[in-house]
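Researcher: Let's do a round of design. I'm pasting the structure tokens now; please hold your answer until I've finished.
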């Protein structure tokens, strides 16, 4: 049951929340007082949004605020009434649902990476090389991606799991197409592809792999 609409899975309209809670004060006063009293921060806990409406009296600006689920939950709690408690429980459940979705999505990215790594390893083993050779070649590629000591794959955020999958898959495709078999050229190909993905990430996000913080260890999801 949708008590209050949650947009994009993680934000709430302050006006919708104000209406649901049945607050006695006017919206603008209610919001301003809550922000001041509980020290919420703009662009962290909430964002101001406005639009201009055509009315019989002319154009009129209407203002709302987009709230994080955390802020919406706290505002509900401090209302200290049945409606507030109901809304708080609703937002707690929404946070849990969002966390599960994010974890499932990350697990999918991880499984994709593991699959392409396994195919890449099989190619190397199929050319008569060892598993130790594969580990070293992949490590050298990861070092290029991070321009130094890499994060373990287990703690990569989603975007870097995707970047790694792309680089490894490109390596496998190029190696298969050209039937490259010597270790030196296999390693160079893998490094070149990680370098290309590094550049692509910078072009599209303005960030480099080493700018990202590690995520929770994929093997500990759900704990």
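Researcher: That's everything. Go ahead.
Model: Designed sequence:
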């Amino acid at each position: 049951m949708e008590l209050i609409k949650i947009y994009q899975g993680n934000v709430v309209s302050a006006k919708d929340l104000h209406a649901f809670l049945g607050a006695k004060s006017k919206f603008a006063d209610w919001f301003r007082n809550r922000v001041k009293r509980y020290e919420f921060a703009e662009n962290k806990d909430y964002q101001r949004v406005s639009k201009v409406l055509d009315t019989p009296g002319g154009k009129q600006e209407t203002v709302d605020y987009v709230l994080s689920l955390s802020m919406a939950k706290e505002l509900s709690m401090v209302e200290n009434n049945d409606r507030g408690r109901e809304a708080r429980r609703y937002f707690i459940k929404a946070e849990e649902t969002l966390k599960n979705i994010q974890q499932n999505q990350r697990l999918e990215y991880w499984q994709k990476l593991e699959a392409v790594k396994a195919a890449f390893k099989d190619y190397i083993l199929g050319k008569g090389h060892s598993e130790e050779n594969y580990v070293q070649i992949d490590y050298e590629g990861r070092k290029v991606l991070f321009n130094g000591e890499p994060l373990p794959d287990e703690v990569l955020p989603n975007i870097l799991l995707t970047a790694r999958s792309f680089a490894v898959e490109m390596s496998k495709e190029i190696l298969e197409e050209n039937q490259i078999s010597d270790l030196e050229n296999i390693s160079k190909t893998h490094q070149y592809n990680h370098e290309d993905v590094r550049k692509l990430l910078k072009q599209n996000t303005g960030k480099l792999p080493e700018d990202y913080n590690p995520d929770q260890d994929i093997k500990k999801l759900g704990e």
